[in-house]
Write a structure and sequence with these properties.
The protein is α/β, with parallel strands linked by helices. It has helices at about 20-30, 55-65, 85-95, 105-115, 130-140, 150-160, 185-190, 240-245, 260-280, 285-295; strands at about 15, 35, 70-75, 100-105, 120, 145, 165-170, 205-210, 220-225, 235, 250-255, 300-305, 325-340, 345-350, 360-365, 365-370, 375-380, 380-385, 390-395, 405-410. β6 (about 145), α6 and β7 form a beta-alpha-beta unit. α1 (about 20-30) packs parallel to α9 (about 260-280), α3 packs across α4 (about 105-115) and α9 packs antiparallel against α10 (about 285-295).
């Protein structure tokens, strides 16, 4: 349990990532307070920003604001001399649709100040102490996203002394360079992380061969075990009560390159955790249960990053594979929806569908709907199975739409061992 004296005066914001409209809707449905996203320029996850542009940003803003949530736009790459005019134009065009820009370049700060656009200082600025935070506040920043090198104790002190909103990452991938200023991808492939195009060479397995040739030379090694550059994913759920006591104003979930399943699952978990802390009903077993839910979707092995000290304990992973305990297999597409009985008609395209299967229906307006299929019907007939090429109707929890994609949720046989949670169905034959 969390003592009342340690409860923050305001609930921390749950800040969700979105790389496309499906993920944005999934985040809203899961209970986030705000969404952050990038467009196809000036974004540190530019390769994950293919779902958003200046053209559809108004729709993203409208969805968030109609739901009573906020929208933050990442404009957090470095900005070169011949790009300032473009950035100025972008800021003016996005101004009516966003609540703040997340920036890291002083040119972006200057342009936001001149345009009257609220801005948050990105973790790329490596703000790791209260003096830096106070200075950024004096420059007009409404919030500082603290450096990922900060411990929980340092976060608590900065939040108390700087008197500016602080934001911290609580979940997701961690860069080997922590606050992200790495040139490995730039050097190897000409794709710079500081421009949003990192190819993550740090995550890969390498073959090392000796330069010297001849007798007693030419040794070769595969560097795989330990992945010395590949950091574990951060998961704060087992110690979320300690994160709560650190007093950050916003809990940020990394994952703009992740799909809607990831966004909905992780946001839901942190929303449940925060609500339990606010009600005084938090318990350690809940944190482990919520971590178990997050293990169902994409993740690398979990760790605590540097929250509990530098260097981090078990900071790097020995296995860089996706450790998700479930897989989503393409099943088919929605062909119709009957509102009054809440019935969907789906065309099965891949795999065999049987009653009891776990299904996930996803679409740009629908977001994500996940449920267990009950009775399958074709007109007046009840079906025991529906093979590819056939259609069926079934009851769904809420409205879905024409051409929404339907996925079959199955357990991942490579990573499921040892899970105490109820497993989804086996892979179909």
């Amino acid at each position: 349990m969390v003592e009342s004296s340690s409860v923050p005066s305001c609930l921390p914001e749950i800040l969700a990532p979105a790389g496309e409209l499906i993920s944005l809707q999934a985040a809203l449905d899961a209970g986030c307070d705000a969404v952050y996203l990038g467009i196809d320029c000036f974004s540190m996850r530019q390769m994950a920003a293919k779902g958003f542009s200046l053209e559809n940003l108004p729709e993203a803003g409208a969805r968030c604001h109609e739901a009573g949530r906020k929208l933050y736009l990442t404009l957090n790459t470095i900005v070169f001399e011949d790009e300032t005019a473009h950035l100025r134009d972008v800021v003016e065009r996005v101004k009516p649709h966003i609540d703040a820009a997340i920036v890291s370049d002083w040119a972006a700060i200057a342009i936001c100040r001149a345009a009257g656009v609220p801005f948050h200082c990105s973790t790329q600025m490596s703000c790791a102490n209260s003096l830096s935070a106070k200075f950024l506040k004096s420059m007009g920043a409404e919030r500082v996203v603290l450096a990922r090198e900060c411990t929980l104790g340092e976060i608590r002190r900065i939040a108390a002394e700087a008197r500016i909103e602080t934001e911290i990452f609580v979940h997701g991938a961690t860069c080997v360079a922590e606050s992200g200023r790495c040139f490995l991808s730039h050097e190897a492939y000409g794709r710079s992380c500081n421009r949003g195009t990192c190819l993550q060479p740090c995550r890969r397995e390498y073959h090392i061969s000796e330069v010297r040739k001849g007798r007693d030379a030419e040794a070769e090694f595969v560097v795989g075990t330990g992945y010395v550059l590949s950091a574990r994913d951060l998961c704060s759920l087992p110690f979320l009560d300690q994160v709560w006591q650190a007093g950050a104003a916003s809990w940020k979930i990394e994952g703009r390159a992740r799909n809607a399943d990831y966004v909905h699952t992780v946001v839901s978990a942190y929303r449940r955790g925060r609500d339990a802390l606010a009600k005084g009903s938090w318990a350690a077993h809940l944190g482990l249960e919520l971590q178990g839910l997050c293990e169902r979707v994409y993740h690398r092995p979990f760790g605590q990053s540097l929250f509990n000290g530098r260097p981090g304990v078990d900071q790097f992973t020995e296995d860089d594979r996706n450790m998700a305990k479930t897989l989503k297999l393409n099943l088919g597409v929605v062909r119709n929806y009957y509102a009054k009985p809440s019935i969907a008609e789906i065309l099965v395209q891949d795999h065999l569908l049987r009653p009891g299967a776990r299904l996930s229906i996803q679409g740009p307006t629908t977001g994500l709907v996940e449920f267990d299929a009950e009775e399958l019907r074709q007109d007046e007939r009840s079906l025991e199975e529906v093979p590819p090429g056939q259609w069926c109707t079934l009851r769904v929890p809420r409205k879905v739409r024409l051409n929404d994609r339907v996925f079959l949720v199955v357990r991942n046989p490579n990573t499921f061992e040892g899970n105490s949670l109820q497993p989804p169905p086996d892979l179909p034959a």
